C-alpha cells in the first residue's frame, strides 16, 4: 500500500523552544526539520516547511492565510500545523472556517519545551501525523491533537495554563483518542458548513469583557476607536450585561455589529429566558447577535472572518446561528 504523504508546516511555539544558555528562558530554536528528525522513522512520507518561528500570541491572520495556502498547494493526504498552544484554539478555528477541502488538517503543539523533563512535543507531533494520515479524518475539517486526545476546532479551548492535560472540548468532549499509533474515533463530526473566503482582514474586532460595576464606558471608548469593525462582548452568564452597558450597546448596534458571548467558558448564550434591561432578550431586541455555544475568542475569529468576506448584518446573524449551533 502507498505510504500517505503528510505536509507539515511549523510556526513556532513551545514545541520548537529550548532554553538559551546562561539561564535564559526558552525561545524558538527548532524548525520543521529538527522537530521531525526527533521522531525517527514514521510510516508516512513527510514534506515539511518552517513557515515561522515565533510565540503564538504574535501570529496574525496574514501568516495563517499563508499557512493555509502552503498546505493547499502541497496536495498531500493530510496537513499538520505546529504552533504554540496559547492561541492554538484560535488558529484551529480560523483554519477550520477557511479550509475548503476534505483533506484533514491537524493542529498541534506542546506544553513542555525541549529543556524540561518529559517534553510532550514529540508524542504530540507523532500523534498529529497519525491523525492526519487516517482516512477517517477526511471531511472532518480542522482537528487538534494534544495529550493523546483528538478535538474538533469548533469546541477546543486551552483550559489550563501549564498542565499537560490543558485542552478541553467541554461540554461536547473530544472526538477521539490516539492509542498505539491508531485513532480511536468516539464521535462523528457535525456536517461541515461552506468555507469562508474573505481577504479584507484589516481593522479591529476587539473582545470587551464585562462584569461587576461596569458602566459601559470602556466599551464605548473601545468601540469608538478608528478601524473598529465590530465588537464581541464577553458577557456574564447566559449573555447578560449591566444596564449601563446595555445602553451603550443600544447606541452601538445601529452602526456596528455587536456579538454577545458568554464569559463563563462553557455553555451557550440564551435567547428568551430573561427579560430585564441588559438580559439576552433585551440585547437581541436591540439588534445584537448572540454567539450561542461559541466562546468570545472563537466569536472574534468568526466575526472578523465574516467582515473580511464582506458579510452584511443579516448574514452575520445567520452565520452565528448556524456556526454557534443555535439552529441545530
Ligand atoms: N506557551 C506557549 C506554547 O505553548 C507559547 C506559545 O503559545 O507560543 O507554545
What's the topology here?
Blueprint (H helix, E strand, L loop, with lengths): L4 E8 L4 E3 L6 E3 L3 H6 L7 E10 L6 H14 L3 E5 L5 H11 L6 E4 L12 H13 L8 E5 L2 E4 L4 E2 L8 E2 L7 E4 L2 E4 L21 E3 L7 H7 L7 E5 L7 H10 L5 E5 L17 H7 L2 E2 L5 H13 L4 H11 L5
Parallel strand pairs: 1-4, 1-5, 5-6, 6-7, 13-14, 14-15, 15-16
Antiparallel strand pairs: 2-3, 7-8, 8-11, 9-10, 11-12
Helix pairs in contact: 2-3, 3-8, 5-6, 8-9
The site of aspartic acid has 9 residues, from loops.
Walk me through the structure.
- The structure is a single chain.
- The chain is an alpha/beta fold and 328 residues long.
- The protein has two domains: 5-185, L-asparaginase, N-terminal domain (Rossmann fold), CATH 3.40.50.1170; 207-323, Rossmann fold.
- Helix content is 28%, strand content 21%.
- The strands form four sheets. The chain has an eight-stranded mixed sheet, sandwiched between helices.
- Strand 15, helix 7 (280-286) and strand 16 (289-290) form a beta-alpha-beta unit.
- It starts with a strand and ends in a 5-residue tail after the last helix.
- The mean pLDDT is 97.
- Bound molecules: aspartic acid.
- The site of aspartic acid has 9 residues, from loops.
